[in-house]
Amino acid sequence: MPLRCAVLASGQGSNFQALLDRKAAGDLHVEFVLLIGNNSVAGAFEKARSRGIPCFHLVPSQFSSEEGYCTKFLEILTEHRIDLIVLAGYMKKLPPGVVRAYHRRIVNIHPALLPAFGGKGMYGSHVHEAVIEYGAKLSGITVHFVDEEYDHGPIILQRAIGVLDSDDPHSLAERVLAVEHACYWQAIEAIAAGRIVIEGRRVMGVGEMKDENNG
Ligand code: GRF
Question: What are the tens digits of pLDDT across the range 186-212?
């Protein structure tokens, strides 16, 4: 049985689109059965709706307590029999109860090489601004399991690209995003195929990356 994935997204959903394309191409063997987002006009919602994937708009302000928010989140995930939660540009912190319930079953993609340029406030263009301002010569992408700290869980795969002298945050973001699209599915496919072995913080079994994009 293919893994049943929930995608959580806040933005345009280009990573979600790249995953859907990989599935359509026959490279990625999972089912995308649910979309949860905190912004119902986000592009990701449109992509899901047009494919008949159930969508839920969930934000803490809809609930009188953090507990109610978490309970609803878990209820939706359980109802849809979710095996794996895929964060694809999801800008909200997940309720800790969800993180605990889906231990090592939540993956995220971060647009830099963790543990550098991660943590609270390091999202979107802030990441690329920080990389350039620091003068780092390499950036890239990190796919990792999610734990209760921002950008902290065990790393599944990373891919580096060079920062060019001519880069500004926008040009760097564009090249990094292309690498995200080329790589995220490979981590998810390794999980789906049961190839992943976790020992402490070490995640093994992703194998050789398919080198389609050198940044
Ligand atoms: C990506 O850079 C991702 O790494 C970050 O948010 C961005 C989302 O882009 N977490 P998209 O919505 O998938 O196009």
Answer: 999 999 999 999 999 999 999 877 766
Which DSSP symbol is given to 60?
Answer: G
Same domain, 61 and 148: no
Distance 45 CA to ligand 1 centre (A): 14
Residues 202 and 128 in one domain: yes
Q: Which of 72, 102, 132 is the last residue of a domain?
A: 102
The closest residue, in CA terms, to atom 7 on ligand 1 is: 89
pLDDT of 121-152, one tens digit each? 999 999 999 999 999 999 999 999 999 999 99
- Sheet of strand 106-110, all strands in order from the earlier edge strand to the far edge: 55-57, 30-37, 3-9, 84-87, 106-110, 138-145, 155-162
**The pTM is what?**
0.95
Residue 29 bears catalytic tag: no
Q: Are residues 88 and 34 in the same domain?
A: yes
Domain stops at, among 49, 77, 102: 102
Residues 5 and 98 in one domain: yes
Segment 99-122, tens digit of pLDDT: 999 999 999 999 999 999 999 999
Largest alpha-carbon pair distance within the chain? Answer: 50
